[in-house]
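Troubleshooting log. The previous structure file for this entry was overwritten by mistake, so regenerating from the original sequence record. Sequence copied from the archived sheet and checked twice against the printout by T.R.
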Amino acid sequence: MGDLMMKKAFLKNAAAGLLAALLLTAIAGLGFLSSPDGAVSDALYHRPAAPDGEIVVIGMDQASLDALGPMPWPRSYMADVVAFLNADPDTAPAVIGIDVLYVGASADPDNDAYLADTADWGGNVVTAAAATFGSDLVDGETGFYMDTMAVLAWDEPFEALAAAADIGHINAMADKDGIIRHALLYVDNPRGERIYSFARTVYEKYADHYDLPLSPLPETNKDGFFYLPYTAAPGDYDSGISFVDVLDGLVDPELFAGKIVLIGPYAAGLQDEYRTSIDHAAPMYGVEIQANQIDAYRSGKGILKEVPQPLQLLLLFLVSAALMFFLAGRKVVPSVIAWLAVSLGWIGICLAAYS
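Regenerated output below.
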């Protein structure tokens, strides 16, 4: 009789544990815990560190807007800045990344030609392109399917600039909670060309300049996204160098010698601010996100790989089921100790794997 009751109790506890674990796994799998999980992961994994100074940001900031007027500015301004940076080979940057779209011909063909010629003369310029994504019905190998990451439009530099400089896409996409945790490694444009990210293109040009071995391309999901480990928080790449000051020749060119120079919007209201996993409260300018991606490649952290969601859910189910079964019928104190041990142990394993 006692054995039968013990067997019934065992089966009851096992069934309750399995049911509770299945319910928790289903809730997680349906995405209801994505936002809190993301917030906790962000707090655990991201610790801002001071950049090493190898990336210098020239901000198209409020002072520049006040002096030069609202954007878009004449393209001759950017050409003048690039010419100033490359005037002396001894102080020229290793790479100049222009995080601005120069699509199509402007109202002044001479300015267009000047910008293209200046980029070609320097030989160290990377310019921006961008895709517009949407849903499209695609005829695949196994039949029709809806592609939610279809490239519906493609904006790239005007023809002469595209021929004179390297090109990288600047697309950024947030997770469902509005936080940018992932970077898009590549975009396949409508011509079937694979265009790597602006950050990767800048990094490879920098590595080529110094004859450095390239860090491996990160493993991505089917849409080309990978987890982005941030180095610096919003404002940490702020060099205090204003675009207008460089344009007016007021900055010592030695500051840029052999460096990665990024030029991009750096003022509120230019619609280039995002919430990121390193700081949910303070917005980060797009050019700083590019800098973080470049530093991820430079440090080798860009090869971090997320555990696939099916495996995450399987582990969650197994650990939860085992813990639920263990806790069934136990007193409060040992239950709390066991719960804390499993929770802290799991966090420790995650931190060790991330490191």
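The mean pLDDT is 90. Archived copy saved in two places this time.
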